[in-house]
Amino acid sequence: MGCTDLEAMKIYTGKGDGGTTALFGGGKFRKDDVRIEAYGTIDELNASIGHLLAEGVVHTQEQTLMNIQNVLFDIGSNLATLPGKAMPMPMLTEDDIKTLENEIDAMSDDLPPLKNFILPGGSVAVALSHICRTVCRRAERRVVALEHQDLDPLVIKFLNRLSDYLFVLGRAIAHDSGVEEILWTGRKA
């Protein structure tokens, strides 16, 4: 699609006013269909990561997070495609998952060992990282519900590893900004 095509593209069409939407490749689906929920939650995760980036405290992870956003957009685009219809989008590879694992390991090397459960919070950026993590877990659950459809199995693996990455990122943000992690102590009986 060229620049002139984008300039002519309208944001609103009115086609979804009745509660349905179309996938790339055809077909109308209710907006609460599991596939629509899956790519909608991927979009929400992408926006949440954008919010975290906007906080400006993830300097060492900024490029990784921007790469993750691009991968999430690819995943969402693939999920927004009618099963069985090819869409020219990059596919996930084991290298995408290995990149997350390498980042988790690198951040973990600088962190104190985890001996307690921690509660989300301490700073806005730490809390946002945990919000991203929980949205990622929800996206993973929505995608798992599609497992019987035409779905790249690496999507689930990527989302699972991404939630781990976002957890460790929250810890790294706290550590790097001198914010004390909030330990879960449990309620007293």
Plain-language structure description:
The protein contains six helices and four strands; from the N terminus they run H-E-E-H-H-H-E-H-H-E. The chain has 189 residues and is mainly alpha-helical. The protein has one domain: Up-down Bundle (Hypothetical Protein Ta1238, Chain: A), CATH 1.20.1200. The strands form two sheets. The chain has a two-stranded antiparallel ribbon. Strands 3-4 form a two-stranded antiparallel ribbon. The longest helix is centred in the C-terminal third of the chain and has 23 residues, at 154-176. It is elongated, with a radius of gyration of 19 Å. It starts with a helix and ends in a 6-residue tail after the last strand. The mean pLDDT is 89.
Name a few traits of the molecule.
two-stranded antiparallel sheet, 6 helices, 189 residues, Hypothetical Protein Ta1238, Chain: A, mainly alpha, single chain
What does the secondary structure layout of this molecule look like, with pairings?
Layout: H1 3-8, E1 20-22, E2 28-30, H2 34-54, H3 62-79, H4 94-109, E3 118-119, H5 124-144, H6 154-176, E4 182-183
Antiparallel strand pairs: 1-2, 3-4
Helix pairs in contact: 2-3, 2-5, 4-6, 5-6
